[in-house]
Amino acid sequence: MGKQAVPGARGQRLCQDAMGRLKEVVRACRQHKQRVQLAVSFLGIKIRDENTWALLFYHPVHRISFISPDTSNARVVYTCLGSDNSNRYITIKTKKAAAELETALVALSRWC
Predict the structure, then answer these.
(1) At 54, which CATH number?
(2) Which domain of life is it from (predicted)?
(3) Which of 10, 38, 41, 80 has its CA at a distance of 20 to 30 angstroms from the CA of residue 56?
(4) Which of 35, 103, 95, 36 is nearest to 67 (CA)?
(5) Which domain holds residue 38?
(6) What was the pLDDT predicted at 9?
(7) pLDDT range class, residue 93, cuts 50, 70, 90
(8) Measured distance CA(54)–CA(110) in Å, rounded
(9) Can you list the alpha helix ranges (DSSP code H) found in the chain?
């Protein structure tokens, strides 16, 4: 659904606030959400454009600082990703329930 810089690395409230801001941006732009291909591996999270396969986003697994399902939509997972000097919030909306994605991300973040 989108990504955004956030002031912290963790927290349900932080993610809900960022989600609200992303929804406002989407409504203001009046555009459909970009369709992407998500790949999760031991190396990290890769998000590619579904049509062009251009790499839109890459983040190593060890930088994931927070993962949580959206309480109002079973198809949405929040993640906070940290780097040396910034934190980024990402919302991922799946075609089906996001429980499998959440489980995979949690397992990988614990493993790495």
Answers:
(1) 2.30.29.30
(2) Eukaryota
(3) 10
(4) 103
(5) 2-111
(6) 66
(7) confident
(8) 29
(9) 12-29, 99-111
Report the predicted TM-score, pTM, of the whole model to 2 decimal places: 0.68
22 neighbors 1 (Cβ within 8 angstroms): yes
Q: Which residue has the higher pLDDT, 4 or 109?
A: 109
Specify the residue for token string 């999270």: 45
Count up the domains in the chain and report the number. Answer: 1
Cβ neighbours of residue 38 under 8 Å, at least 6 residues apart?
A: 45, 46, 47, 92, 94, 101
- State the Cα–Cα distance between residues 27 and 30, nearest whole angstrom: 5
Eight-state DSSP code of residue 85? S
Residue tagged 């809900």 (tokens)? 16
Model pLDDT for residues 29-46, shown as the tens digit of each residue = 777 677 888 888 888 888
